[in-house]
Specification:
The protein is an alpha+beta fold and about 450 residues long. It folds into three domains: about 220 residues, Thrombin, subunit H (Beta Barrel); about 90 residues, PDZ domain (Pdz3 Domain), CATH 2.30.42.10; about 90 residues, Pdz3 Domain (Roll), CATH 2.30.42. Helix content is about 20%, strand content about 35%. A hairpin with a 2-residue loop joins β18 and β19. The chain is globular and about 90 Å long.
């Protein structure tokens, strides 16, 4: 068979394939299929991405040196010159969301800007701006910074309470410092708490890829509305495994108002200690289900006490929001301000009751002892529940003080004062007379004894 015939046969064999194969120069997908436009997130992202910024921080850290280098005698002996402490810079990257274009407010995580000496914001258009810290809430891991309000884009805020499991969401952020990156997924779960990631937890769980550097970025719905702030990942291997967590927009906006106004969140107090309903408690209380939180203790003279709540009551609803466990109580009350009204539904036995309370001021966390009694001068006191012993803790004490000479030591817990059982600083203040001797009962480890301070 001559070469010409071989070529003709080969051409006849390949011609049908060639005619039916797609053109290699037009491999892109068509913009329409069967007369309908193909779905794309591009138009929404064009509106949303300018509102998501990259954040870089610089923190000056003092370098630890050998203690001998700080000893004046050592430096004099070896004729070492006095030098200021050496410092090194630590840099970190994260993301942020412009939520108020007129004021220049940018939302991010507290851990992104924590202890930073300099905060730099890079916009989507390439501009780099120095930011000023407005306020932080470490308990919820939320921070507000401010940049010059010049031609900024902000994200519209959605009602995150309307989210449902299965809703499509998009995460926008700056993973690994690569620059703006977009990932998509769905809402995997709502109301995640008890994870130990933050003090107050009510997370949206999503499988949209969230990686280191995404912290502070935006989680948006398909309309480009802000529904949450990317905050944490569950990453046993150090990378994304499809379990990411975002703080809901409604929770953030409540915190934002307080941060802008006060620079901090001034949380109030209801005055109850609650615990989850275990299977044993459900059986003991003869309950139909285990949703709710049982009150284990009510503080004296607290809003809860004035509202008539008692140990053993089971809270099932707060401000119309169903309560599943004790974490729900902590999250709801923790986001309320002093003076806010709270409506509670609870069971006492088989009877369902309702009551209302006004959120009060939190207890004093720490107090100098001489503010209560002159013989406690040189001590720092705080309320505590140490090894199941509830009372007032001696946190610090001056070894040259009368209290030290009388026998008080750091770690001691005052459980009674002037024969009254006390649980906190407020109760101690009520039973102390600065002009009279102070009789206190001390718990020190397994030992207990009385002291008279005069």
């Amino acid at each position: 068979m001559n070469n010409r015939l071989v070529k003709q046969l080969l051409l006849m064999t390949l011609l049908p394939v060639y005619l039916t194969a797609p053109s290699m120069t037009h491999a892109a997908l068509p913009s329409y299929a069967e007369g309908q436009p193909l779905p794309s997130l591009a138009p929404m992202l064009e509106r949303s991405m300018p509102a998501v910024v990259n954040i870089s921080t610089t923190t000056n850290i003092q370098v630890r040196e050998n203690p001998l280098m700080q000893d004046p005698f050592f430096r004099h002996f070896f004729q070492l010159p006095n030098q200021p402490p050496r410092q090194q810079q630590k840099n970190s990257l994260g993301s942020g969301v412009i939520i108020d274009s007129e004021q220049g407010f940018v939302l991010t995580n507290n851990h992104v800007i924590d202890k930073a000496d300099k905060i730099m914001v890079t916009l989507n258009d390439g501009r780099q701006l120095n930011a000023e810290l407005i306020g932080t809430d470490p308990e919820a891991d939320v921070a507000i910074i401010q940049i010059p309000a010049d031609n900024l884009m902000e994200l519209p805020i959605a009602d995150s309470n309307q989210l449902k499991v299965g809703d499509f969401v998009v995460a926008i952020g700056n993973p690994f410092g690569l620059g703006q990156t977009v990932t998509s997924g769905i809402v995997s779960a709502l109301g995640r708490s008890g994870l130990g990631i933050e003090g107050y937890e009510d997370f949206i769980q999503t499988d949209a890829s969230i990686n280191p550097g995404n912290s502070g970025g935006a989680l948006v719905n398909l309309r480009g509305e802000f529904v949450g702030m990317n905050t944490a990942i569950l990453a046993p291997t150090g990378g994304n495994v499809g379990i990411g967590f975002a703080i809901p927009a409604n929770m953030i906006m409540t915190i934002k108002e307080s941060l802008v106004k006060h620079g901090e969140v001034r949380r109030g107090l209801l005055g109850v200690t609650t615990q989850d309903l275990s299977a044993e408690l459900v059986k003991a209380f003869n309950l139909k289900n285990k949703n709710g939180a049982v009150i284990s203790r009510v503080d004296n003279n607290s809003p809860a006490a004035r509202a008539g709540l008692e140990p053993g009551d089971i809270i099932v609803s707060v401000n119309g929001r169903p309560v599943k466990n004790s974490h729900d109580i902590r999250n709801i009350i923790g986001l309320m301000q002093i003076g806010d009204k709270v409506e509670l539904q609870y069971f006492r036995g088989d009877e369902k009751r309702e009551t209302s309370a006004t959120i009060g001021k939190p207890k004093k966390l720490q107090l100098a002892g001489d503010k209560l009694h002159p013989t406690l001068q040189g001590t720092i006191l705080s309320a505590t529940r140490k090894e199941q012993v509830e009372g007032v803790l001696i946190e610090k004490i001056n070894t040259a003080s009368k209290a030290w000479s009388a026998g008080l030591r750091p770690g001691d817990v005052i459980v009674t004062a002037n024969r009254y059982r006390i649980h906190n600083l407020d109760e101690l203040a009520q039973v102390v007379n600065p002009n009279s001797p102070l009789l206190i009962n001390i718990q020190r480890g397994p030992e207990a004894f009385f002291l008279v301070l005069q």
